[in-house]
Amino acid sequence: MTQIHVTTTVNGDEVDFLADPRETLLDCLRDKLGMTGAKEGCGTGDCGACSVTVDGRLVCSCLVLGVEAQGKTIETVEGMAEGEKLHPLQRKFIEHAALQCGICTPGILVAAKALLAQNPDPAEEEVRYWLAGNLCRCTGYDKIIRAVLDAAAEMREGV
Amino acid sequence: MPLDTKTTGFKYIGTRPDRPDGIDKVTGKARYGADAYAPGMLHGVMVRSPHAHARIKKIDATKALALKGVKAVVTRADFPTGLEGEDWNIQENCMAGEVALYDGHAVAAVAATSLLLAREAAKLIEVEYEVLPHVTDVDEAMKPGAPAIRAGAADYSVPEGLHPNVMRYIEYGHGDLEAGFAAADLVMENTYKTEATHQGYIEPHACLAQLGSDGKGEMWVCTQGHWFIRRMSAAVLGIDVANLRVTPSEIGGGFGGKTTVFIEPVALALSRKAGKPVKMVMTRSEVLRATGPTSSSSIDVKMGMKKDGTMTAAKVTMRMQGGAFPMAPIDSALDCAFSCYNIPAVHHEGYDVLANRPKQAAYRAPGSPMAAFATESLVDEMCRALGLDPLKTRLKNASREGTKASFGPTFPRIGLVETLEAAIAHPHYAAPLGTNQGRGVASGYWMNWGGETSVSAALGEDGSVTVSVGTPDIGGSRASMALMAAEALGIPYENVRVNVVDTGSLGVNEPTHGSRATYATGLATIEAVKQISSKLCQRAADKWGIPAEAVIWEDGCAKPSGPNAGEFPPLTIGELAAEMGSTGGPISGHFEATPSGHGGSFGTHIVDVEVDPETGHTSVLRYTVVQDAGKAIHPAYVEGQFQGGAAQGIGWALNEEYIYGADGRLQNTVFLDYRIPVASDLPMIDTVIVEVPNPGHPYGVRGVGETGITPPLPAVANAVHAAAGVRLRSLPMSPPRILAAIKAKG
């Protein structure tokens, strides 16, 4: 099938790639741009391991076509840290042991960042419902929720 | 083996440092199974049977091979013949021979230059089937008239007259059963059923394989145990193990399901045929249809109890189907059925049964959750009938050091009593409950495992230490190994780097399974680094001109010790390492063993639920896990194991199940329909780490990974009964089933 030339912005950098119209944004990020931080856990939008934002909106990149990225602004887990300085969510996930195998972690970090962007002071229940689309099979979510709440508190204090 | 056991006065053990792979995993840099690429790489896709049971009459790949970019197609004809026993089972499961045995069974595979092309080609491979009668339920599979899946394959243990689907039969016990039941004030007997569940790791199986026509190959794979992958792949392909180097990726969950092969030998066969590297990544539907879920089970339990709660006799019969292959975990299920209790007379019977389902694989304490569901539900029913406190009754009968275990041996030092006492004392146990709410408790056991283990440690020129281990790190084990090495050497945690190395770098290591990594790899790590300190003591002794016996290792330094050692300032590990090239050469340590002092772990859980009488929906309100860790090396990751096990058990109890249609096809093949617990389903999960040191480990460690999934099934069932007044003896307790039970009660 004819490939389509796509120009887009990923984590602040302008990039371009050729996409088969059937390929997902997740496939394009991983296989064409070498950005393997987003993971495919299901391919059906049920697990959230592929979470990224498109123009600030949280999406499952397995449900977005690569060609839809044309002219958009994409943010992935690879763009969360500033150089060697981790985002507070990333730091709190390590401190709280909020990951075991770590395969869901990139998606959960992207989703949690999107939550805190619109609600800097979420209640535990709000965090749980916001992250209900991000499956974790290792942790039982306890330490994940604590890490997000702790990061939110720190970000509110502007540390 | 005699061990220099230390259980108190630790400097690093019991602290909670950041894990060494933390930054890689929060920044997206960590490389998992599907994150590998090779120049000239092809993509492999499997063709799978849409039938539960069907004879393969013809496979025609002509149209697929005619597509430009399609490089190879393999079928069973591309694999060697003559394999026997479990090797044959594994080969047959990876690629069907004459008969497809379950919905999703692989029948062919294709490799092409792109994934899209390979998927297109797979659709063009024409397979002609003759559909055969099928059976998917364990009890149905044992009935007269059920289709025989592999007639004549049963082993010597099966008594005459049973259906040919019964592959193995086990019977054992001790004590006078009839006298025991006669002495009881109450005898109860019930039947319980559990449906198959899946480990549900978020990372699908993935590998990147390369195999030459000379039989030499390499593979990158997400697995719990790359030596297992090497041995099984080599057997399936008929090549030597030493010619296959397997490197483990970071692993995105396993829980037992990644201890065997599915796509790996097929990717190697495609690579050999195409002459190029081949990457294969399963879809989620492939994972659910064609990897190893658990067995489903049907269980009869009978128990006798006196009015004061004393258990007098117990009998269990377990029927488990493990798919179309033998080895459903009846052995470990039976061993765990009554392991919590000191009962004078016990009897066990087990039937390992075939059904047209995928070959079961291990899932966290394989068999134990099913057995616990039956036994611990019945204990709860009996305590209710006699008006007894369920935890105090368990304590009264609890196994302890010196108890003759239900499965034969005498228990060494174990911690069940301590977990029960901690649960009874926990505020959760006495907290008030509201309307439609109920509390359930249950205990559980897993015997744990030691297994083949090989570890090397090498001293760097600056005094830092590299430890090479062979057990993939699924939940923070590199941090635990580094803590144990740091403790043994008296050097900072940050000065130890632990690497999980490939099959070419160490002797055989069993997988990260059986709750063995922190125990066995930890033990080997401690012993390996002690060889380094012992060699450093020798170097210091040579330098000082005193005997090595007069030098001790303390706080990361060699120090003279004893009346005739003389006065010398301590030599640090850094000082000794800096000059090792001129004092005798490189220094390393190595330890290998099959340690067997693993020591089992017991746990006791308390759960509060609320059951909505209108919908039958169960909400988990509060959950407390109490479990014996022996010694928690990194407590945060021990808590994580407790919490994760509880969450998986809650899913198994309330919602997860394999649903087969009348056509024998799996109906819920995506996460939307096979729904594992999500964040909004669960409360915080409280943990209490009990530490009863294991005498079989230098620091007292017991494995903690598996026990935690065992109590939740009965604990939740007992809580549902307390909340809604209905006893569900069949899992999962999904809302329609609870609602039907409530309505039936009236």
Number of DSSP E strands of chain A: 5
How much of the sequence lies in strands of chain A comes to 15-25%
Poorly predicted runs of chain B = none
How many domains, in number, for the residues of chain A?
2
CATH topology of the largest domain in chain A: Ubiquitin-like (UB roll)
* Shape-level CATH architecture of the largest domain in chain A: Roll
* Fraction of residues in H or I helices of chain A: 25-40%
CATH superfamily of the domain at 36-133 and 199-290 in chain B: Aldehyde oxidase/xanthine dehydrogenase, a/b hammerhead
Distinct helical segment count of chain A: 5
Largest sheet of chain B: 7 strands, mixed
The CATH topology name of the domain at 36-133 and 199-290 in chain B reads Aldehyde Oxidoreductase, domain 3
**Strand residue content of chain B:** 15-25%
Please name the fourth-level CATH homologous superfamily of the largest domain in chain A.
Answer: Beta-grasp domain
| Low-pLDDT sequence parts of chain A | none
Q: Report Rg of chain B.
A: 27 Å
User: Tally the helices of chain B: what do you get?
Assistant: 20
From the N-terminal CA to the C-terminal CA of chain B, the straight-line distance is: 61 Å
State the secondary-structure class of chain A: alpha+beta
Q: Quick one: overall form of chain A?
A: globular
Averaged pLDDT of chain A: 97
